[in-house]
Design a protein that fits this description.
By secondary structure, the protein is mainly α. It has two domains: about 80 residues; about 30 residues. Helix content is about 80%, strand content about 0%. It is rod-shaped, with a radius of gyration of 27 Å.
Amino acid sequence: MPQSGEKQMTMENPLKNFLYAGIGLASYTSEKLTDSLDELVQKGKISDTEARKLVDDVFENLNGKKEDFDDKLGKVVKNVAEKLNYVKRDDYENLLKRVKDLEAVIAKSKSKKTTSSK
C-alpha cells in the first residue's frame, strides 16, 4: 500500500485521463458545431429549426455511439484486469475483513489460553 502522500498508481488513472480527454473533445466539438450552425443561420443558409434538428440528430447519434463505446471499453478493461490478475476492491476489502476476523479469533483464543493456564 502507498504511504501517505504517495500517489497510488492504478488502472483508473490512465483511463480517467482518457475519458476526460474524450469529454473535452466532445465539449469542444459541440461548441464548434453550434458556432458553425449559428453562423449558417445568420447567413441565411439554413433555418433555425434545421440547425436545431441537426444538433439534435448529431447528439442522438453520438449518444448511441457513446453507449457502444462504454460497453466495449468495459469489456477491454475487464479483460486487461483479468489478464493482469488485478484484484477488485470489493474482493480485497472482503479478504481484509476476513483476516481481521481471524486475527480477532486467534487473539481471543490466545487470551483464553493465558488466563486458563494461570
